[in-house]
Amino acid sequence: MKYMILIAGEEPDTPPSEEAQAAEMERWYAYDAELHEAGVYVAGEALQPSTTATTVRVRNDETLLTDGPFAETKEVLGGFYLIDVENLDDALAWAAKCPSSTYGANEVRPVMEIPELSG
C-alpha cells in the first residue's frame, strides 16, 4: 500500500551555516539511502521555500492567484516521500525515522487508489 509522508517544518529566518547545512543533508542522504535499500521508496522531492509558492483558486469562473502558500502557518510543506509498505504501522515507522521528525512534523496519509477508466 502506498503512503505519502508530507514533511512540514518552520522555515528559518536566516539560512543555516554551510557546515550545519552539510551535516543536516548527510542525515537526509542516509534516510533516502535506507528507504531505497529497503525497497520501499517510490518517489520523493524537496520543495523550494514557501515564498516561491502561488496559490490558485477558481471562483465563479474567475482564476484568483495569491502569492505564497495556501495557509499562513509557522510550519510549511517542505517536501514529501511516497513509499510503498505493507501497512500504516510500517509507514509510521518510516516517518519516525525521517530526519524532520526531530524538529518538524511528518503527516502520513494513505494514497487513494483510483481505478483507471477503461475505454
Structure write-up:
- The chain is an alpha+beta fold.
- It contains two helices and six strands; from the N terminus they run E-H-E-E-E-E-H-E.
- The strands form two sheets. A four-stranded antiparallel beta sheet has the order 2-5-1-6, with helices on one face. A two-stranded antiparallel ribbon has the order 3-4.
- Strand 3 (54-59) and strand 4 (62-67) form a beta hairpin.
- It is flat, with a radius of gyration of 17 Å.
- It starts with a strand and ends in a 9-residue tail after the last strand.
- 9% of the residues are buried.
- The mean pLDDT is 91.
For this entry, give a set of tags.
36% strand; 26% helix; 119 residues; alpha+beta; four-stranded antiparallel β-sheet
Summarize it:
The chain is an alpha+beta fold and 119 residues long.
**Spatial extent as radius of gyration:** 17 Å
**Biggest sheet overview:** 4 strands, antiparallel
Count of helical segments? 2
Low-confidence stretches: none
Mean pLDDT over the residues: 91
Helix-strand makeup class: alpha+beta
Kindly state the number of beta strands: 6
Strand order of the largest sheet: 2-5-1-6
Helix proportion range: 25-40%
Order of helices and strands: EHEEEEHE
Distance between the termini: 26 Å
Question: How big a fraction of the residues is strand?
Answer: 35-45%
Name the overall outline.
flat
